[in-house]
Amino acid sequence: MSSDATTPLEIVRLGHPVLRRVAEAVPEEWFGTGRLASLGEALVRTMLAEDGVGLAAPQVAEPLRLFAYWLPARGDDPGLEPTVVVNPELRFVDPEPEEGWEGCLSIPGLRGLVPRSPRIKVKGRAVSGEPLSFTADGFHARVIQHEYDHLDGVVFLDRMTSVRSLAFEPEWERYVLAEAGPEAEG
Ligand code: NI
Description:
- The chain is an alpha+beta fold.
- The chain has a single domain, classed as Peptide deformylase (Peptide Deformylase).
- It is built from 4 helices and 9 strands; from the N terminus they run H-E-E-E-E-E-E-E-H-H-E-H-E.
């Protein structure tokens, strides 16, 4: 990991074995340390620099269970500031999946339709160690499920029920965007 506090980290791409590993829980003694805070900041910085809405630690070759995400403001929805969730646990409140478009910074240039639970409960910790507990719906729930999957070595391609919707980004923008909802790239 780069020690420069302003430079985005390198994002590894599909084929790097770290993306297929089950990541390790962040050890209890790391909470509240500069080491964990720096990793969280680096995830946020890199996510924003690469125009993603989420980024999981394995995507920067750190096989640890944490991710960053944010929600851009849309219409009346103010969105959500960049947030880091450590050692997350998900519970599917509404397991009836809905399809939505996703992309991944580790699989650049592709978009695909992915079924996700539209409502989940999330528990985890902040980098400070403070407990986090909240419910996420819709796009929020989708982004978190995408990032959580990275912690288990799973990518969105694995979750697609069919690869028939898979599209390159320029073609997706040209032919699909007009009819599509927001996509989650992370
Ligand atoms: Ni991803």
